[in-house]
Every structure is written in C-alpha cells, then in structure tokens.
Amino acid sequence: MGRTTRTSSTRWRLGRWRTGVAALALATAGGLLAGCSSDGKPTLTWYLNPDGQDTLNAIAQRCSTDDYDIQTRLLPTSATDQRVQLARRLAAEDDTTDLMNLDVAFVSEFANAGWLLQLPDDTISDDTLSGIASTVQWDDGVYAAPLWANTQVLWYRKSLAEQAGLDMSQPVTWKQVIDAADSVDGATVGVQGNKYEAYVVWINALIEGAGGQILSDPEAGKDAEVDLDTEAGKDAAAVIAQLAGSSAAQSDLSVSNEGTALAAMYGGPGEFMVNWTFVYKNYEPSDANDYSKDQFDDLGWARYPQTVAGEASKPPVGGIDVGVGAYTQYPEYAQEAAACITSVENQVQLAVDAGLMPATSSGYDAQELTDAYPADLLDLYRRSIEDAGPRPQSPFWATVSSAIQATWHSPADVDPDTTPEKSQDYVTQVLEGKALL
Prior knowledge:
The chain is built from 17 helices and eleven strands. The chain is of the alpha/beta class. Helix 8 (about 195-210) crosses helix 9 and helix 16 (about 395-410) packs antiparallel against helix 17 (about 420-430). It is globular. Belongs to the bacterial solute-binding protein 1 family.
C-alpha cells in the first residue's frame, strides 16, 4: 500500500482489487483447509496483503520444508480492512491463522490483545533498520519479524523543478514545494488525502517534522496524552490548508490515494508527489507500461519535505511485519517459517521485483539491489527509514487514527486555528469512552 508497480495507476489499482476479491471469494467458498496437506504434512496458512504477491507466493514455496507446507491467502487491499479481517479471526481464536502480514501500525494492538506469539529477541538485530525495528516491539518483547520497510520520498519532474526555479539539491519545505507548483500553470502536488490510514500517515509526518507527536505516551493505551493541539499540530494543519487552497491541489484531493497520485507525473508540466518506494518501478520503462526513457530520465527524487524550514523532516515509515498467530496449531513450525520468510535474501528479492525495500541494512548492500536501483536513491531510502517518524505504537492506534480522520477530513476543511483543538478534544473523548466514532 501483487502491487503491479509497472503499470498506470488505474490498471494497478483495479488489477490488485480484482485479484484480491477473486482469491478471497474462492477461499470463502471452498473453506480454508488448514492443518494437513494432501501428503499428510502440516499446512501453515500465511495471510498476505496484495503487495508483491507473486514474489511472496514464490517465497512461500521456497520456505516450505519436508516438515510443513506454506499456503497463502489474500487479504483485502486497504490496511484498515486487512486489520479488521485478521482481528476477527484472531478474536475468535482461529487456529488456522498461522502467519500474517501486518501493517506496521497494528502490531502493538495485536500484541497487546494477546493475538501474536512472542518471538525470540534476536528476531531483530543491529542489522535491522531502526525505523522498522521499533514497529515490532511491545512491552519489552518482539511480536513480529520485519519483512520490508517502506518510506516516502518526494518524487518530481526535473523539468518542472527547473521551470519553477526550485533548487532540489537542498532540503525543501512543503511551502516551497506548493509555491513552486502553484507558479507553473497546470502543475500539482500529489498526496494521499482520502479518508483512510495514509492520510493520517501524512498528518503524522507533518507533526513529527515540526517537532511534535500525536501521542506523547502511546504505551498508556486509552490513558495516552493527546498532543494535537500544539504548535506542531498547527504547523501541520497550515501545510494541508495551504495545499487545499492553492491551484497546486489536485482535483481529487479529498479522495486521492497512492495510486491516483501517479497519473499526474507526466500530464502537462507534471507534479511534485510524496509517495512510497514502489514509484521508481512504476515509472521504469518495461513491457508492462508505456513510459518512455525520456520520461523516466525526467524523474527526480529528494528527501521528504520539511514542515518547518530548517527542521529536518521526519519521513513516514511503513512496511510489513510478519506475525505468528497465538492460536496456531504449529507454533514452532510457524516461527521457523517466519524467520525464513523474512530472511535478507527474500527481502532483497521483494525489493528487486516489487520495489518493497529491505528492513535490514545489509539488504541494501546486495548486488542484485545495487544493480536494480541508482545508488543515490537507495541511500535516500535507507536514510529516510533510519530518520523516520513512525506512527505512535499504541494498542488503540486504529481508534486514534479513525478519530483523526473524522476531524481532519476533508483537507479543504482543515484550519490551523481550529482543527488541532477540535481533533484533540475528540480523540481524547473517544479514548475515554465519552464519544463514539
């Protein structure tokens, strides 16, 4: 948020959705035959998000052994729907949920609920990038294994930046980017503004980049201190309000997502766009798309924009962690499989095939990866993940996120003078059980 990253945004989204729905329909109609395969071996069921689907299926085959087989099942496209489906299964103590791909934002919730097996401490090491390592830890334990680490960078047309007079060799602010796009007729800024988790990813990155945080003590759960009504919250709201009120706002801002933002890069003068690491492979010319070499050569990348001039940005961190279900019939096999699935070798393969970057530093040094990506882009990815501002690791993050979406959406309604205060009051009341979502 497999992802067919070399197609246009429309084909990418529809293809993923149709594939996921078809697979889920078959699983529902036929039932999930977990436990034993046709040859009598135990079968582990691994629930996948649709990203990198073909590569993940191949990993499942490679990590199957003489002792067990691994079968895959697709989850819905959105992280929120993935969470709901897995939570329902685990709340019902489903013993066929052996392995699962979890969005990094939800590991703490699942661990706190007792739905994940605790994994060995050496599941993470000095080789694990710090930005992703923090996402699998809860209450002094490790509850998932990092599979890939995602981050956002600023993608842009080099010709657009030159036309707008924006020096991309230096750190840029959101205001500079919006003003630059505003100065060129037809140029835009692409973001994720729909009412979903990625919109909160943007809000969180803006607040973190201004030196703030959404929750100051997320481990306190429902008693966490909400810190939205702060200068950092107002700085974040000011960026959203500036973009929404400018000619640089894309016409679908309030429903925009990672896929819709792609289309504007080569329309007219182009765009500046914050988006995940898959973008490079999306635009790289191949048999699967019709982008030209000249277009691809015009693609530039830079560090995530600063919220406040002079203060280092805190890029978003996303990705997938692999958890082992607490009710699995085969805990030892499932833990062994999780270790295989998340090996450095498999992380590198996901990066080369699908643009899903490694969760380990050594993965970035692999020859296959350095052959597939420019050195400066790989360095940007790695530094962005290391310097990232993760979303709060709260067992109630889904609730907090939904409450923020309710008060910050639509982007056109965001007001730095009122939105942070209203949002803080509402999130606090929801956590205290005094208001309903």
